[in-house]
Write a structure and sequence with these properties.
By secondary structure, this protein is of the alpha+beta class. The protein has one domain (about 5-95): Orthogonal Bundle (Arc Repressor Mutant, subunit A), CATH 1.10.10. It has 2 helices and 6 strands. It has helices at about 50-65, 75-90, and strands at about 5-10, 10-20, 25, 25-30, 30-35, 40-45. The strands form 2 sheets. A 4-stranded mixed sheet has the order 1-2-6-5, with helices on one face. A two-stranded antiparallel ribbon has the order 3-4. Helix 1 (about 50-65) packs across helix 2. The two termini are about 20 Å apart. It comes from Secundilactobacillus pentosiphilus. Pfam families: Peptidase_M78. InterPro entries: IrrE_HExxH. This is IrrE N-terminal-like domain-containing protein.
Length: about 100
């Protein structure tokens, strides 16, 4: 999967960057969203499926943040299932995005 260079979330343009070892609070992660600079990092070398799924996960972080849900935007118990479901719905229903 070729990642897009950017994505717009509620009017804010987030850059998407592949990085060898993205970190969140000192821990290497598959993805990380930096709200302050509107940048999403995705780990280089992930499989196509994991790369896509990680991007959806990080987009859920960004969507919740931009919706003003700062108390929830870093809650992995919410973000994980929503990211997985977003990925699955878009994969199983390509007509939603291929109009």
């Amino acid at each position: 999967m070729k990642l897009p260079k950017q994505v717009k979330v509620s009017g804010i343009i987030y850059s998407i960057v592949e990085k060898k070892h993205p970190e969140d609070e000192g821990h290497t992660v598959w993805g990380f969203t930096d709200y302050e600079i509107s940048k999403i990092y995705i780990r280089k070398g992930l499989s196509e499926q994991k790369k896509r799924q990680t991007l959806m996960h990080e987009l859920v972080h960004a969507m919740l943040h931009e919706a003003g849900e700062d108390e929830r935007c870093n809650d992995e118990s919410i973000v994980n299932p929503l990211g997985n479901m977003l990925d699955q719905v878009l994969q199983d229903n390509p007509e939603l995005i291929n109009r």
